[in-house]
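Lab notebook, bench 4. Still working through the backlog of constructs that have no structural model yet. Next entry is a single chain of 194 residues. Request: give me the structure tokens for it.
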Amino acid sequence: MIEDYSDNTLLINALKSGDSKAYNYLVDTYHHKLCVYAFTLIHDQDFAEDIVQNVFVRTWRKREKLKTDFSINSFLYKSVYNEFIDQYRKQKPFFPLEKKYIDAITDTVKEDDERSLERVITLVKREIQNLPPKCKEVFLLSKQDGLSNVEIAEYKKVSIKAVEGHLSKAFNILRKTFDGKLDSYFFLVFGIKE
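Model written out:
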């Protein structure tokens, strides 16, 4: 008989009883999604995978304490976030994160895990794609590729003032769209401040 582990209660009960197939299902279903989420927090692929691995190991070790009325999806995302914060506190000098950006991540997680995070990332990327072509190109060279204004000016064969103008226009358009949440959204997508 094949168990339907997609049912939250059945999955948690199977995990609590030590069903290794349920654990394999959990890892297969959530590993990649959680790694993507962890990467948005830490911007280090290896570290993101370590965080997710720690969460899976801890979930298995403490499986008897799982509550069937909790969403396993929300539990895992919150666990990844908590593990990230624990690692951040232990290695504070290595992570140049400021409190307001951790708060921004916390607010996004509170809104309800994966769906809200994916929604924010999709929305930001869509709005960037809607920028005027030259603004979009300069913006992506700056924020996605990490080029300085001077490097962009040399690459595009335009003045630094032109680059600054395109960036300013892009930020003005995006600021209106995201109504005060631009900093935290950018941090989630690019790991940067505006």
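Notes after review: The chain has a mean pLDDT of 78. DSSP finds ten helices and no strands in the chain. Flag for follow-up if needed.
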